[in-house]
Design a protein that fits this description.
The complex is a heterodimer of chains A (263) and B (397). Chain A is of the alpha/beta class and 263 residues long. Chain A is 36% helix and 23% strand. Chain A has ten helices and ten strands. In chain A, helix 3 crosses helix 5 and helix 3 packs parallel to helix 6. In chain A, 47% of the residues are buried. The mean pLDDT of chain A is 88. Chain B is mainly α and 397 residues long. Chain B folds into two domains: 84 residues; 280 residues, ABC transporter involved in vitamin B12 uptake, BtuC, CATH 1.10.3470. Chain B contains 16 helices and four strands. In chain B, a hairpin with a 2-residue loop joins strand 2 and strand 3. In chain B, helix 5 crosses helix 14, helix 5 crosses helix 15 and helix 6 runs parallel beside helix 8. The radius of gyration of chain B is 23 Å and the shape is globular. The chains are: A alpha/beta (263), B mainly alpha (397). At the A-B interface, helix 2, helix 3, helix 4, helix 5 and helix 6 of A face helix 10, helix 11, helix 12 and helix 13 of B.
């Protein structure tokens, strides 16, 4: 298992905003099929790291290699190209398309895996019709991952309750057939019951072949979910290992003022 | 079957009311008629009847369109019979504005980019055809080539405008497009050798198709303008259909995604640059086609027909009708062409009443006359009802 090259390898990644080093000299390796959790206090650079991987920010230094059929350096690519390479993400503050229906939200996710252009839409070519059919069918199949969403597929996304919107955002990200899924605080704002459900859902995702990188504050979730945990503080990696290893780490306890140790 | 008959009755009632309204010649009774109509619509809406009518029309789509087409066909005949061909002219003009509003709706309604210089593309279409016919007055058949050619030209200019202002959004984009509209008008005013300056270009001939000249009466006692009436209806239908198909395609979904959240759209793999530019080009192309028909209809173009006031008017049509809603925008364009014509008797109060009407609209129905609604996707297959989720596809093929 460890023989294969890692799916994602981040090397010496750094980003500074003015004098603030949001991410500095970070190295991370991620194997295919793994669930990696990023923890750390607010402002420790976790979301910045996601923004660097997904191309929303450009790093000052460092490389992000994605191992597909061949290794690709994601640094310098525009966000839509990175999605096309197989990295999808969700956002900390949900960014679904509120006025589109649930199904349409997911259909948008297929954009970079389909290709009919304006002319084929104007003339409704057979290829375009077939592709539309494919998108609708596939979007429903992905929505079926979260059974709760299925009866709501024709509702405007803004009418969904909070926890459903979070799930919709995950399904939408899955539509681009990613190899690596970046989830930014998927359980934030969920009650313990919902968190438990979500955890089961994410395990199911891993079983169907996705690799997950999750930012999470809910330590029960981190414990139940992750194969490996990386702790951040002040833009640096301060600990790495299994959940138990990381929670015993002194620097982590220090960063959290002992909060993590109680879990 | 009775459902179809209800649809026909609805369409015919609306059409009869329209004819009746247009035939009220005094302005004061007309205003009363409009207010009564608005009140009636409000009552129907409160009673839930409008919703029911909407559902009915959706179910009997074919009958609905067929009866609409019949009404459009009958319209010029009725006004010829009533001896007021003026209203055929107004309807033709309304058709031109429907094309323009549908084009602007792509940019403003679908993608959410505020464009205040949209009239520039209309001017480009009208002037391209005027300049061509000024040099080749005999080549009247070329009108049919000019339609797509100027659309292409305007589309390319739209790409240029779009690519220069891509990083801007909201107010800043509005200012740049406003400037673009003014630049276009000033160029038209000052490039004497090409555009004949403020005097404009006159004597633009009508098109010819297979020896049939648009400058002759089409028969049945119809006036010359009826030719253009039918032409613009065909064009407006084509543009409306094109806009609808684009709206419900992969491209339309990307447009809407950009409108709702550009960053999320980009993270989902949408090339925001290209998709935005495409909207600019499509909108510009629609406007240019409207411009070509306009120049042949009026037979004369001058820079004063393409002022900022026109851009603002087209934007009003889109906002009044309902941003992003194709039927709404069509109704908006018709209302805003007909209303000022009808209020001509009020002379100096005209713009005041018009402004007041717009403000009232924004207070009581800010989403527009016919708000846009996303079409429901037909369920294509039922998921299996067993307990296990039907999630089994491999992530990568």
């Amino acid at each position: 298992m460890s023989q294969a090259p890692p799916l994602l390898s981040i090397r010496r990644l750094s980003k500074a905003f003015g004098g603030l080093k949001a991410v500095s000299q970070v190295d991370i390796e991620l194997r295919a099929g793994e669930i990696l959790s990023l923890i750390g206090p607010n402002g420790s650079g976790k979301t910045t790291l996601f923004n660097l991987i997904s191309g929303i920010y450009q790093p000052d230094e460092g490389e992000v290699w994605l191992q597909d059929h061949r290794a690709v350096n994601l640094v310098g690519l525009r966000p839509h190209k990175i999605t096309a390479q197989g990295v999808a993400r969700t956002f900390q503050n949900i960014r679904i398309f509120p006025d589109m229906t649930v199904l349409e939200n997911v259909m948008v996710g297929f954009h970079c895996r389909t290709q009919s252009g304006p002319l084929s839409a104007l003339f409704k070519t057979p290829a375009q019709k077939k592709e539309e059919q494919y998108i609708v069918t596939e979007a429903q199949r992905r929505l079926a991952l979260f059974r709760q969403l299925l009866p709501l597929i024709n509702e405007p996304a803004k009418t969904l309750p909070y926890a459903y919107r979070k799930r919709l955002e995950i399904v939408r990200a899955l539509a681009s057939s990613p190899r690596l899924l970046l989830l930014d605080e998927p359980a934030a704002g969920m009650n313990p019951h919902e968190t438990k459900e979500l955890m089961a859902d994410l395990h199911r995702l891993r079983e169907s072949g996705y690799t997950l990188m999750v930012i999470e504050h809910d330590m029960l979730m981190v414990k139940g979910l992750s194969d490996r945990v990386i702790a951040f503080d002040y833009g640096q990696k301060i600990a790495e290992g299994t959940f138990d290893e990381v929670r015993r780490n002194e620097r982590v306890i220090e960063a959290y003022l002992g909060k993590a140790a109680r879990c | 079957m009775p459902e179809n008959i209800y649809t026909i009755i609805i369409v015919l009632t609306g059409f009869a009311l329209l004819i009746l309204g247009l035939n009220i010649h005094e302005a004061a009774p007309f205003l009363g008629f409009v207010l009564a109509g608005a009140g009636g619509m409000y009552a129907l809406q409160r009673g839930g009847w409008l919703l029911k009518a909407g559902e009915l029309i959706k179910r009997t789509r074919r009958t609905y369109y067929a009866s609409l087409a019949l009404c459009l066909l009958a319209y010029p005949l009725i006004f010829t019979w009533l001896q007021s061909p003026y209203w055929i002219h107004v309807a033709t003009l309304a058709g031109v504005y429907v094309c323009l509003a549908l084009g602007l709706n792509v940019v403003v309604g679908f993608v959410g980019l505020l464009d205040l210089g949209y009239v520039a593309f209309y001017a480009i279409g009208a002037y391209s055809s005027a300049i061509f016919f000024h040099h080749f007055p005999q080549a009247r058949w070329a009108f049919w080539l000019l339609l797509p050619a100027t659309a292409l030209l305007a589309g390319i200019i739209g790409l240029c405008l779009g690519s220069s202002s891509l990083r801007l959004r909201g107010d800043y984009l509005a200012i740049v497009t406003l400037g673009f509209g003014e630049i276009t008008r000033i160029i038209l005013t000052n490039w004497d050798t090409l555009t004949n300056g403020p005097k404009g270009i006159s004597g633009i001939p009508g098109p010819v198709i297979a020896r049939y000249s648009f400058d002759k009466t089409p028969g049945f006692g119809l006036p010359r303008v009826a030719n253009y009436y039918f032409l613009i209806i065909l064009l407006a239908c084509a543009i409306g259909m094109a806009a609808d198909r684009l709206n419900h395609s992969r491209i339309g979904r990307a447009w809407m995604a950009i409108r709702e959240d550009a960053l999320a759209a980009e993270s989902l793999g949408i090339n925001v640059t290209v998709i935005k530019l495409l909207a600019f080009a499509v909108g510009a192309g629609f406007a240019a086609m409207g411009g070509v028909v306009y120049s042949s209809l009026i037979g004369f173009v001058d820079p004063m027909s393409f002022t900022f006031m026109e851009s603002a008017m087209i934007l009003c049509m889109v906002v009044l009708g309902g941003m992003g809603s194709i039927p709404g925008v069509i109704i908006g364009a018709i209302v805003l062409v007909v209303l000022p014509e009808k209020l001509r008797d009020f002379q100096q109060y005209r713009m005041l009443i018009f402004g007041a009407a717009l403000i009232m609209m924004m207070i009581f129905r800010p989403q527009g006359l016919i708000p846009s609604r996303r079409r429901k996707q037909e369920l294509l297959e039922e998921e299996d009802e067993s307990g296990t989720p039907a999630f089994e596809h491999p992530p990568l093929e």
